[in-house]
Amino acid sequence: MPVPWMSDDIQKLPLSDDKVPPLPSYTTSTAPDTSRTQTLWYRMEVVALLATVLGLVHLATSSPAPSVAHNNAAAAAAPSSATAASGFDQQTSAYTASSAFPTSIFASYYNNPASMTAEPRPVVTDVQRNSVFPDILANPTILPLGPSSSEAVYPLATGTALPDIASQVRKELTDIFTSSSANCTTCTDALKSAQKLARQSPKDVPAMLIEMCTKYSYKSASTCAKTYAPQVLGSVYAQILSYADFSANSTDAQYICNIVVGSSTSNCSLPKPRHLDDDFLDKWFFGKRTPPNTYNKNVGEPTKNGKDLRVLHMSDIHVDPRFFVGGEASCTNGRCCRADAYNSTLSNGNFTQGMLPKSNISEPATYWGNFKCDAPWSLALSTLEAVTPLNGGDEVDMTIHTGDMVVHDLAQYISQDLVKYTHQSLYDSIRSLLGRGPVFNAIGNHDSSPSDFASQGALPNGRSDQLSWDWDNLARLWEAEGWFNHAQAEQVCSHYAGYSVTPRKGLRIIAINTDFWYKNNVFNMIHTQNPDYSGSLRFLTDELFHAEKRGERVWIVGHVLTGWDGSNPLDNPTNLFYQIVDRFAPHVIAHIFFGHTHEDQFNVFYTNNGTSKAAQAAKAVSFMAPSITPGNNVNPAVRIMHINATTYEVMDYHQFYTRVPTFPDLPSTSHGPIYEYLYSARSAYGNFTASNANSTHPVANGIWPATAPLNATFWAKLTEEMAVRKDLVQQFTVYQGRNSPKSPKCVTADCVKAKICYMQSGSAILGKQCPQGFGSVQS
């Protein structure tokens, strides 16, 4: 059931904090005395008082107040009627952050958070165990802890194991690898042999994987041992080997060889996608494949001030609590900006614990971050602090966060505790810095341990719940922050962190776990011909039917995109997703929101599997939000969308960013990062005069109407305009990396053609049909 509304506008929940762990009001380098507490409510009252005095939200006190610059660029760029229709007002053009860390966000610290010689190490209480996470979990001067042995989950053995099954399988594998030429059959035969061990004696699988990995130099001996340890990947791979179908009619073995082993190693091609015929689709949609003839999109209530809703879309924070200021930021080995990172041109990596000599560092890790590193605490919280000032001093009405809070890291350094620590500390920060507007989150592929993995409910022998600790923890946190009530939180537990909620009259937000179409989720290598083995797309479809019956508009929220160049998602599930969008857009589905790529991208969905890319055939658009993390080689950014309060369609969005190349000089100034205005989607892309005459959807004077939303037709027309006006693709590429000097240009005919094709490809199947090699600006 939805949370009761407080007004016509989006609900802003009271900041009562009875379910958030009490937070001490002091700063210290030792663990907190839990008897000294204060609530989030009290802290926000203090913030509100400061905001009244200072005229902005600012928690730091040891540096000059941040500055906010305004202009009317966005309003001036749009026709005058757009100003009234879209709720434009004075647009913030820049925000200069404070150099001081907002220490009041956390109750206490393991180090001095005011020092810029190291990143703050906040003390965070594990709400489930009612104890603090230890400093060793995220201390950058200590090599990271890995997962505990208790995190290993094996499949149950089936039948009686032969006494020498392990040695027998080792011999078979050696014979296969030495007597056969390197072809796809070599790989699939090896899987069949290994499956015998996984089913009879699963706990012997990690040792076998380590031995084979080392023996055939798949990785270094040390990396093999760490990667395939039972609690890292060893026991998970035992499950995949046990549960996969390696029979002649199955494609599981080919998928594993192509994706997990790698096509260059296995010489296995990706199987052809399953054809979803009429019989399948008729059953999937219960014989209701045709949408209703009429549907009212004006289902919401206007805001009291008549303006659009302001909705923040942010993604991929990837905070690195182990960020090591002064470490190697341009590493060739390890995770950059870490104590054990090094550049092989200056160091061989054989050094004792601690900091490399400065002479052995090619690029020092700076306090605010670097291009090849994930976001330090300072950058992550500075960006969150910037949102309200960038929105003209008003809190956003709500936030969509499309996943990936946890750092990119080697598998052996990711643990359940690290995931919980990151989630809890960041959600508390978001609640404090963004205010009372609800936050709707999607789980990202890095928001689990091991990273990338999500196990389906259909797995046998109780193994379906091996990642339920993650869904349960997210449900508990989202309820504690006040974003969900208990009934809504229970959905999160039963739908792999997915849910369906109505935060405002006529709007339904449906979040799904997109790891179930992510190619790096090894659990997707089971039942590969089933496009919905997890049941997530069944849940989505059923909720869309319910929304259609109730006359609601829907936002679909997830993490991994369904298309672009086809390099991230899997064919079969994203093909089914495309059919679902075709059935329910545009009358029910208003928009789709993803993240994952760290880049500013979009996908247009067309009718009939995209057989026609004409603007009049466009049905839906998905937005991929830019990342807050700079890695790899992009500038951090956030997006504030203007949403029509009655139709829930995007009228415009405004993108803001900060320049990473300025970070090294910031410690010598009196301020932090400067967040600049990058562009307005309507202003940048709304001129279609070059292509209008030949468009299937011409508009008056070639200018997108001021009162029209930025719907699928708008973005489809943009691709038509790009085909005529090639320079527009290069402008898009600049925005893709947020004006990063590291982004390659897109000026050749091949690049222009490829990028337009990616924009028009809402499924993996379509994306793979495009020319490859131009999908990303990262390097």
Automatic annotation (TrEMBL):
<keyword id="KW-0378">Hydrolase</keyword>
<dbReference type="InterPro" id="IPR041805">
    <property type="entry name" value="ASMase/PPN1_MPP"/>
</dbReference>
<dbReference type="GO" id="GO:0005615">
    <property type="term" value="C:extracellular space"/>
</dbReference>
<dbReference type="InterPro" id="IPR029052">
    <property type="entry name" value="Metallo-depent_PP-like"/>
</dbReference>
<dbReference type="Pfam" id="PF00149">
    <property type="entry name" value="Metallophos"/>
</dbReference>
<protein>
    <recommendedName>
        <fullName>Calcineurin-like phosphoesterase domain-containing protein</fullName>
    </recommendedName>
</protein>
<keyword id="KW-0325">Glycoprotein</keyword>
<feature type="compositionally biased region" description="Polar residues">
    <location>
        <begin position="25"/>
        <end position="34"/>
    </location>
</feature>
<feature type="domain" description="Calcineurin-like phosphoesterase">
    <location>
        <begin position="309"/>
        <end position="599"/>
    </location>
</feature>
<dbReference type="InterPro" id="IPR004843">
    <property type="entry name" value="Calcineurin-like_PHP"/>
</dbReference>
<dbReference type="GO" id="GO:0008081">
    <property type="term" value="F:phosphoric diester hydrolase activity"/>
</dbReference>
<feature type="region of interest" description="Disordered">
    <location>
        <begin position="14"/>
        <end position="34"/>
    </location>
</feature>
